[in-house]
Amino acid sequence: MDDAQMAVIMPLIMYGGEAKSSAVEAIRAAKAGDFEKADERIEAASKAIVEAHHGQTELLTKAANGEDVPVSIYMVHAQDHLMTGIAFVDLAKEIIELYKVIKG
Questions:
Q1: CB 26 within 8 A of CB 45
Q2: Share of the chain above pLDDT 90, in %
Q3: Exposed (0-12), middle (13-18) or buried (19+): which is 6, by Cβ within 10 Å?
Q4: Based on CB atoms within 10 Å of each CB, which residue in 19, 64, 70, 91 is the most buried?
Q5: Which CATH number is associated with domain 20-56+70-103?
Q6: Contacts of 94 (CB under 8 A, 6+ apart)
Q7: Which of 64, 66, 56, 48 lies closest to 5, judged by CA?
Q8: For the purposes of burial, counting CB atoms within 10 Å of the CB of 21, is it exposed (0-12), middle (13-18) or buried (19 or more)?
Q9: Does the structure show a pLDDT above 80 at 1?
Q10: pTM
Q11: What range does the record give for the signal peptide (predicted)?
């Protein structure tokens, strides 16, 4: 694994983790009735997902162009972080909406 590939993979891990953390913060804020903060944290989570997608798109583009993109445990870990982040953001949005209905 070369430094260029690690430079793409590490932000996937970082931004995927950031998205998940921000989504959890958003749920906690909604639970407390602070919907402004919940919306702010969901926005931060969504931005982190977009940043992570840039790196993923770069790797997919290289592979689509026939370049060798070796799969490593780091890449698997990065994809796991990204998928988990996306799932948390999607679920957090739904949970926040539920809290808005419950708390009226």
A1: yes
A2: 79
A3: middle
A4: 19
A5: 1.20.58.80
A6: none
A7: 56
A8: middle
A9: no
A10: 0.89
A11: none
Q: What is the pLDDT of residue 104?
A: 80
Catalytic annotation, pick one of 53, 54, 77, 81:
77
* Domain spans in the chain, listed from the N-terminal domain onward: 20-56+70-103
Please say if 53 is a catalytic residue: no
Query: What is d(CA 42, CA 36) in angstroms, rounded to the nearest whole number?
Result: 10
